[in-house]
Each structure stands twice: as C-alpha cells, then as structure tokens.
Fold:
Amino acid sequence: MSDQTKPPPARRQAQQRADEIRAFQAELARLEAAQVLVLDETQRHALADYHQALLATYASAYDIDRDHRASQISLGMRVASFLGALALAGSAFFLFYQFWGRFSEAAQVAILIISALGSLGLTVWVQGRDASGYFTRLAALVAFACFVLNISMIGQIFNITPSDKALLPWAAMAFLLAYACDLRLLLAAGIACVIAFVAARIGTWSGIYWLHAGERPENFFVAAALLLALPQLSLHRHYPGFAAIYRVFGLLTVFIPMLILSHWGQISYLDLQPKLIEGGYQVAGLAASALAIWIGTRRDWPETVNTGITFFVLFLYTKFYDWWWDVMPKYLFFLVLGLTALLVLLILKRLRGVIGRSDTGERA
Structure:
C-alpha cells in the first residue's frame, strides 16, 4: 500500500514528514547543482508530483505547515492560543468572583457544574472541526481551568477542608484532555498534580501535614520512579513527545531534591550526621546525572542527555563553591570553573565521537 492510499498519520507525524520532504528537496537541489546526482525530467516530475500529492493530503487532513513561512506563523498561533486561554480562564475566574455573592448556594453549584461540563463539551465540539489543533488547545486549557475552579470553589461553598485528594481529579482531567487533544502543556500540568499528590501522601504517612510535604524532599523520589517507568508503556508510541516529558519531569523530581539535600542534610529522613547526608547526596547526584547522560546517549533521548548534563554541572559547580569560594581569590575560582567547563566539553566531544563510530560500525 502506498503512502497516498494509507490513512493519514497523526498531525505531529504528518508535520514531521512534511519537514523531512522540505529538507530532502533542499538537499536534492544542492546535489543537482554540484552534479553529484542529476535526475532526468521524468523522474523529477514524478518525484515532485508524489511530494505535492502527499503534502496536499496532509494539509487537507491536518492543516500542517507546508513551508518555513507557515511554520513561523504557526509559532505565533501557538503563542496566541496559549495567551488567549490564559485570558479566558482569568476572565471566567474574575467573573465568578465579581457576581458570586449574588447567587444562592444551589445556583452557585449549578453554575460551576455547567461551566465545567460546558467547556468540556465545547472542547469536544471544537476538536471535531479544528484541523489545525490551535483552537482545540485553547478550548482544552479553558476547560481545565474551569474544572480546577469548579473543584476549588465547591470546596469553599460547602466549607470542605482543603485536601491533597483534589489533586487526583485535577490530574485525571489534565491527562484526559492531554491525550484526547495531544496537548503537552496539559500533560505537564497533570504530571505536576501527580507529583504533588504522591509527595503529599508520603508526607502524610510519615506524620507531616500534606501542605508541608515539600519540607522533606525525599517525599518526591517515589513520584520520580513512577514518572520514569510510565514512558515504557506502549501507549506512548502513539503520542510523540509525551514520553520525553515524562522523562524530564521524572529526572527533575530526582535531581532537584538531591540538589537540595546536598546542601541541607538536616531536612532528610535519614538519621545521620547532616554533613554525611550532604556528602552522600552530592555523590549520588553526580552519579545519577552521569547515568542519565549515558542512558540518554544509548537510547537516543536528547532531553535526558541535556537534563543530565545540566545537573551534573550544577552538582559539580555547587561542590566547587563549597570547597573553594571562601579560600580562593575570585579570579582563580572562576578560572577553575572555566577550565572545568572546557574539560566537560572535551569529555562530551570524545563521547560523541565514540558514539558516532559505534553507530557507523552497527550500520556496516
């Protein structure tokens, strides 16, 4: 079955294929100009017709960017949809508070439920008619904001004690909209809700009030393990980019608590000397970030490599600060930092060369 007769892929895959076609056409033009590869007229017209038909199919189904100028406009549309969603959500929030006291309790509950269900229904309706996805994203963000406002204000109406359990429906709504509308921003919101809930639960089990769970950074390690495991599910093969977001949030949920504990060991659960805890987390942070770089390189996960490099440098530089800031002249301290950066560059360059040679050997 040819590409023209297959069902069109999801919009992200269609856009990726269109970008690859543009890159191929540009490279082919260079090869022909250099007389390296010259197609005859029949081949050139057949190739051009094939690409035009393929791009037309994708454009009619998904409203993709067919050239560089269109992609620039699309970036502006993404920004406009995000800012529009924030503005509409803010409008709904202040509208409720402006006239809230004039309604009876039953009317308040009804308004909240109708606004949440209505915005969700609007999102579904827009999604069926919006090939570009920009208006769907705007509607989905507004629906999520209305749902969060719904849960929060109903709790105030009935004087319900604030609880971490509210994070679960918020996360469920964010994930539902993220997967239904292919919206990474809401995926990040859902992940943040899950991180907060897991940390709060663990803190509660250890005797801490849930709002103070952040005072014990180790509460976040369980959430990190869950986030790093979730991308292995086959579900994410159909959602390009989602697995990378899980991995980045998982790594942040590992490295940030480690970085904090490497300086404030007294807030750890471990019953050890603070200096010993700080030293242990410094070593663990360097080892974990180096492991992230290695795994990301082996698996071709650039976001994992970049996150690992960032935190490896942070752990290293903060350790240098602890060691030498008070005892070294400032010019010498920054010189050491600069030379360390050069050393890291050389190591990464060598690692890149090794990977390139191994990839070449595998292809051979």
Notes: Residues 217 and 257 are 5 Å apart (CA to CA). Confidence is low (pLDDT under 50) at residues 1-9.
